[in-house]
Amino acid sequence: MTTTIVRAACPHDCPDTCALLVTVKDGVATEVRGDPEHPPTSGVLCTKVSRYTERTYHKDRLLHPLRRTGKKGEGKFERISWEEAIAEIVQRLSSIALRDPQAILPYSYAGTMGMVQGESMAGRFFNRLGASQLERTICSSAGSAGYRYTVGARIGTDLEQVNGAKLILIWGGNPIASNLHFWTRVQAAKRNGARLIAIDPYRSLTAEKCHQHIALLPGTDAALALGMMHVLVAEDLLDHDYIARHTLGFEQLKQRVAEWTPQRTAEVCGISAAEVLELAREYGRTALAGEGAMIRANYGLQRVRGGGMASRNVACLPALVGAWRHASGGIQMSTSDTFPKDNAALGRPDLAVRHGAPARIINMSTIGDDLLKPASAAFGPKVEAVIVYNANPVAVAPESAKVVEGFAREDLFTVVLEHFQTDTADYADIVLPATTQLEHVDVHATYGHIYMMANNAAIAPLGESKPNTEIFRLLAAAMGFDEDCFKDSDDDIAAVAFRRDHPRSAGYDWDALKEKGWQRLNMPAAPFADGGFATPSGKCEFYSAQMKAAGLDPLPDYIAPYESVASNPQLGAKYPLAMISPPARNFLNSSFVNVQSLRDTEGEPHLDMHPLDAAARGIGAEDMVRIFNDRGSMQARVRVTDKARPGLVVGLSIWWKKFAADGKNANEVTSQRLTDMGNAPTFYDVLVQVEKLATDEPADASRAAAAAAAAA
Ligand SMILES: Nc1nc2c(c(=O)[nH]1)N[C@H]1C(S)=C(S)[C@@H](COP(=O)(O)OP(=O)(O)OC[C@H]3O[C@@H](n4cnc5c(=O)[nH]c(N)nc54)[C@H](O)[C@@H]3O)O[C@H]1N2
Ligand SMILES: Nc1nc2c(c(=O)[nH]1)N[C@H]1C(S)=C(S)[C@@H](COP(=O)(O)OP(=O)(O)OC[C@H]3O[C@@H](n4cnc5c(=O)[nH]c(N)nc54)[C@H](O)[C@@H]3O)O[C@H]1N2
Ligand code: SF4
Ligand SMILES: [Mo]
Ligand 2 atom 7: the closest Cα is on which residue? Predict the structure, then answer.
């Protein structure tokens, strides 16, 4: 028996991008562990990925290509060969491309965050084809836009410095579930005397363990930051030297925040004026005392109408109090832009230029509407084909009824590259089996730490599955694309992923990275201790000329949600409860929902509801309820709990629809309206009503039972 240990990287859409050690015995992966030597990972994995072999060797893994035999959505398929699959896809795509290649749309996100299995060969293929471009907005583009206007690039506090903080604001994030290795460091900081404050409408697992929890109304974070700035200015809790040397627009900011008294802020946020005052004082005093005052701003505050502005306002705070001076201060929203990726070499956007005008752009967050649009001068051609990889839009995209209607179109040709028969794969014409991270090569940047990460293939592909790259290589060859880049191996691609000529990744060497598994970027401990922001002015921009040019308010502002009782009383009268659907701990977006042990831990779709709201509707503990608005409805089992503040309901997500009693999930009620900047979705900007189901029987129990039996 031969046993080897292979160095790998977790592929999932999680800021931690852990370094993995995979034990392989006679060609079979038997264990996945965290690398004890990699500082961010420190030998620890989350529950999901420590069970990775369960997912890889799952009996439902797709192992050969399939062609649909039933109706769209029914999930009936027959086995076909790779030759048949490629020939059929190429025949369909070629005939559409003859008319207009822009009628073909790639749809992908971060099922794997690997740069090789992501937009490298796939990007080259769609660029060369002249297909529509996908605007990838579903997660972080609102916050990214707001942060970039202010700080210049998504660069922030180093994860490895968190231990030294004295005050940590966990703002719109639940790291125990979704950023575990940050939480480990928060615990270390707490042991050293740090105070932890969670800012979250919901008493999440994390908020429960902080010293203080500020339960503001969803979508009001921008106001809270304005109120804090008001107090910092009014009480002169300011780092005048840092402001003078490293910021732009302080005088205008001062005028703007004058109107945001603690009282007004408290009213908008649904909290007390004392909470606003104390938060600002504690933050300002800690930073001015030269101690680490850190903000971990996460995704919870971005998924509302004013999500970009909220992220911007929060990103202004560290510069006002000079918190950037301390390596354990500052703010981390994402570390993505720290990585000098070579996207031009990876996806070859230059190949698209041969078609003259740039291709039409479709926003992934409005896929529901866009699949239903007829051809028009403004829109361009009707979408006739969608190629889905690394994504599960039927479960994760907003306003699901529309998304389903779009994917159910008989005249739409859909190909899905997947590990499993997901809700989206049920609508495919052709399903292609993809390899998992244990079976292919990849290289990773991250969004929560600053190490480049390598993934070696640990085992051979299962069944007839192939890496995404290989699938696009086959398609390119069959389409007759003869550029050399379509012959690159996965190692060739990984070798050009980072720029060798950039100081942060100078001398990047794929062979060395593969052997070691990880390599820290060259970065100072405190990125903006002495200014040097990546904005046009080189300063932290309280006033942003770029925002003005984009038609936005150049100063921090508050943009109320589309849907809240205060901002839209008419809608609020009909649908008085705000609903959010943040990640469940044991799933990763919709990945892992089909892993039995993890689904057993989550149980079934739940809705957390405050006792007052439940009583007002005659809803008792554990009743089945229907959650609805004008867009749709879903069922869930209630948990009556004061974790949800009054007026708020919380449905942890993202369930596969086919595992729910009624075949639905939280995206039935979410909308396709976009954020103020970044064109991102507003998943947490939703009003609903909730009613008890007439009987305790789910509407379609047979469906859930059948799905459970099929998965068992
Ligand atoms: N286990 C697990 N880990 C994950 C994921 C997963 O699905 N499961 N998903 C991954 C992905 S794709 C992402 S983008 C990240 C997300 O990472 P996080 O942003 O940390 O996501 P959550 O853990 O849901 O934390 C969001 C918190 O924001 C709160 N919230 C909702 N609305 C508001 C609001 O208006 N204001 C404020 N202040 N808070 C609000 C929610 O109650 C929730 O507790 O996590 C990644 N990691
Ligand atoms: N209601 C609600 N909706 C949300 C959110 C929310 O909080 N609430 N969060 C949003 C966010 S932050 C995000 S990022 C999106 C996430 O949306 P997606 O990026 O679509 O994430 P997943 O649902 O995990 O689906 C990824 C799929 O990719 C597949 N996959 C993984 N690796 C590979 C591979 O190597 N090759 C191929 N071909 N397939 C692979 C997996 O099997 C999985 O089915 O969802 C969004 N939707
Ligand atoms: S999902 Fe996140 S915490 Fe879990 S192993 Fe992957 S990177 Fe680490
Ligand atoms: Mo995300």
Answer: 582
